[in-house]
Design brief:
The chain has 15 helices and 13 strands. The protein is α/β, with parallel strands linked by helices.
Length: 415
């Protein structure tokens, strides 16, 4: 018992130190001005001089397949792709918007400040292609009823579990945190490891805290009010997150979150889970089956569980948002604006989204008519998200606040 207590304290210390480490690392990658970032420029163009190229930053995203698809319908459109491969992409995208120094097609990892969007981006909510999107996905990034940014594909995070192992042992899937706590002793009695927690990368521990906090508080109406008040200086971190920290500790105490695998790399954690004697995995998987061909143990995904189950939440993370630079509406840019709208039109089709998603097995389309296979391990999660049991990853977009020490820098010491 004493050994478990020591281990739990070590894990909490590790998670908290990860926050500070991530803060330092993020702060070190900051540049003074978006225009000073190193970029590598290549140009993909057709044999035409009639259309000025649309500029777009790839930031590690391969747009080749999507551009080919655009050219099938609009061969006259040209593109100039600028590369950006630095670590702190979110801050870079924010500073582009803040400084009004964006490419024609603006991409970002977060739907930033609404006032900046209104000032520097084009309102696309009246365009016909806006009707292709799921209303929940559009509402999540709307500004006063208008849409300046449109979501690309998104990934879903939750708690991964070995569905086959559950069926063999007759375990019922928990629907709230109380049921989860009652289940873990039964898992241990069967000689099965309760969970593997991925902790090898900076920021993982903090992300789990945010995910748990979303189900506990952040995704509720009260939580959303605290976020709004915190951003305007009307609330402090401890007021909103002290109870979340206590709830997070309960997950450590029950054994769901543990430091047994803190020295393992991501692939080592996955390989351990593939062995088939672990009930849960806290982290990410590149597939939801034991073997690459789909055979062996089958895995499932459950949401982060709230105390009574009413606020269970899947965590969604949009890979990129897309918008158009307002300068495209300047006199002389009529052709570029038309081309940019055509790009958004193609992007907003099922074929365009598939070209954008590439080989991401966990990608989910933001379009309302997108089909998800009945046997997809993400089907239930998507249906629950559409019912309101999904929330955007809290960490995304807060990197700058966190790295500057404004959110948790001194408050963590009080927990």
């Amino acid at each position: 018992m004493e050994e478990n207590s020591i281990k739990n304290k070590k894990l909490l210390c590790l998670l908290l130190s990860v926050v500070m480490t991530a803060s330092v690392l993020t702060g070190c990658t900051t540049k003074n001005n978006a225009s000073e970032e190193e970029t590598e420029t290549t140009e993909e163009s057709l044999n035409t001089e009639e259309h000025e190229p649309l500029t777009l930053i790839d930031s590690g995203q391969d747009y080749g397949e999507l551009i080919d698809f655009v050219h099938e319908k609009y061969p006259e459109i040209q593109f100039q792709i600028e590369g950006y491969l630095e670590q702190d992409q979110s801050r870079y995208f924010y500073r582009q918007l803040e400084a009004d120094q964006m490419p024609d097609i603006y991409t970002t990892t977060y739907a930033w400040d609404g006032e900046l969007q209104k000032k520097y981006l084009i309102d696309l909510s009246g365009e016909e292609f806006s009707g292709n999107y799921n209303e929940i996905n559009l509402d999540a990034c709307s500004v006063d009823g208008a849409n300046y940014l449109f979501p690309g594909d998104y990934s879903i995070q939750g708690i991964i579990y070995n569905k086959t192992l559950f069926e063999k042992n007759g375990w019922k899937m928990p629907h709230n945190f109380k049921e989860l706590k009652e289940l873990i002793p039964k898992i241990e009695e069967a000689g099965v490891q309760p969970s593997i927690t991925m902790l090898s990368l900076p920021g993982y521990g903090f992300q789990y805290f945010c995910n748990v906090s979303s189900a506990m508080f952040l995704a509720t109406k009260s939580g959303q009010k605290w976020i709004e008040d915190f951003q305007t200086g009307k609330a402090d971190a401890e007021t909103g997150l002290a109870d979340c920290a206590k709830y997070f500790q309960q997950r450590i105490d029950c054994g769901l979150l543990n430091g047994d695998s803190d020295a393992f790399a991501i692939n080592e954690c996955r390989n351990k889970f593939y062995e088939g004697n672990t009930a849960f995995l806290i982290g990410s998987m590149d597939r939801l089956t034991q073997n690459e061909d789909g055979s062996g143990d089958q895995y499932g995904l459950i949401p982060y569980l709230s105390p009574d189950g009413t606020e269970n939440m899947y965590i969604t993370s949009v890979r990129k948002y897309y918008g158009l630079n307002k300068h495209l509406e300047d006199p002389g840019n009529e052709q570029k604006l038309e081309d940019a709208l055509h790009f958004m039109e193609v992007l907003s089709t099922e074929e365009g989204q598939k070209a954008l998603e590439g080989n991401h097995a966990s990608s989910v389309s933001p379009l309302k008519d997108s089909k998800i296979a009945d046997d997809s391990p993400y089907k239930e999660a998507v249906e629950e998200i559409q019912k309101g049991h999904g929330t955007s990853a809290f960490y995304v977009g807060w990197e700058g606040v966190i790295s500057d020490g404004e959110l948790f820098g001194h408050k963590w010491q009080t927990f």
